[in-house]
Amino acid sequence: MHRVAVVVQPGIRSFDLAVITEVWGPDRSRLGVPRFELRRCAVGTAPIPLPGGLTLAPDRGLDWLGTADLVVVPALADPADPTPEPVLAALREAHARGVPVAALCAGAFILAEAGLLAGRRAVTHWSLAPQLAARHPAVLVEDAPLFVEDGGLWTSAGVASGIDLCLHLVRAAHGAEAAAAIARSMVTGPFRTGEHAQYLDRPVPPADRTAEALSAVRERALRHLHEPLSVATLAGWAGMSPRSFARHFTAATGTTPHRWLLTHRLDEARRLLEVTDHPVPEVARRAGFASEVTFRQHFTAHVGLGPRAYRAAAITAQAAPKSR
């Protein structure tokens, strides 16, 4: 995923464009991140007006989408605005060639307009989900996840979830270390998964002592992932009963303590497979899994590859040229 094409047209959201540019634009090779070639692809070469009085200069035509390793589609500020047919056709052609296509926030409307999401799962900002479903009834619209993938097409919810999706795409293609390095440079967290809730029905007040206790528990748990942590253990650290702790934890994070632990343990296992030569049983132990069998089952289900195959792919990717 070294060549990244961002689809630009009049009216795209400046925030989405900024997120894409910040993730794939800077040269972070000194941090161990592959170099990316990010190109702004449009119908023509004329400057493109953006909301807020900004303009953007394209540097490639739409034909570049078919040669890219990833196509990213920013949302239009008004999702009701139509997208030019040449853009829709270029997206269809890129997808037909097997190029992954990711849309941020209301960018799902553009993929739906291109006919790419018919019969597929998709998300957008929760407040726009009913509108997307009404305009494109063939799309299987969900309003809860932060991002989803279906058939090589990625869609994300609103604003910050676009960052989550972009980092996830980097992590999937280049490993947890690369994604973490980009996240650190952006001063954002690299670990929110698509299964997190888009919003919380009962937000925890910023100064709430329970929120502070839960944050401390999460930080402590990350330092002790190799240990056999249970909900009862975490609840004890917070000074709560397991039932009360699980309720507060889910309300604060949008996921259960068990799933949160599993996600972080799998991320740690990925890191160990990428940067160490520890045998798989040792990786399982250091990541906190009770047995190698359990580790293999969870890792394969989550990543799509077994631990050894993942390590082999990571070694191949690291040995590949950093740029084209």
Structure, described:
- With 324 residues, this protein is of the alpha/beta class.
- Helices cover 46% and strands 12% of the residues.
- It has helices at 14-24, 85-96, 107-113, 129-135, 160-174, 176-186, 209-223, 231-238, 242-253, 257-275, 280-286, 292-303, 307-319; strands at residues 3-7, 37-42, 48-50, 54-56, 60-61, 70-73, 101-103, 121-123, 140-142, 147-150, 153-156.
- The longest helix is centred in the last third of the chain and has 19 residues, at 257-275.
- It starts with a strand and ends in a 5-residue tail after the last helix.
Topology readout:
Blueprint: E1 3-7, H1 14-24, E2 37-42, E3 48-50, E4 54-56, E5 60-61, E6 70-73, H2 85-96, E7 101-103, H3 107-113, E8 121-123, H4 129-135, E9 140-142, E10 147-150, E11 153-156, H5 160-174, H6 176-186, H7 209-223, H8 231-238, H9 242-253, H10 257-275, H11 280-286, H12 292-303, H13 307-319
Parallel strand pairs: 1-2, 1-6, 2-5, 6-7, 7-11, 8-9
Antiparallel strand pairs: 3-4, 10-11
Helix pairs in contact: 1-5, 5-6, 7-8, 8-9, 10-11
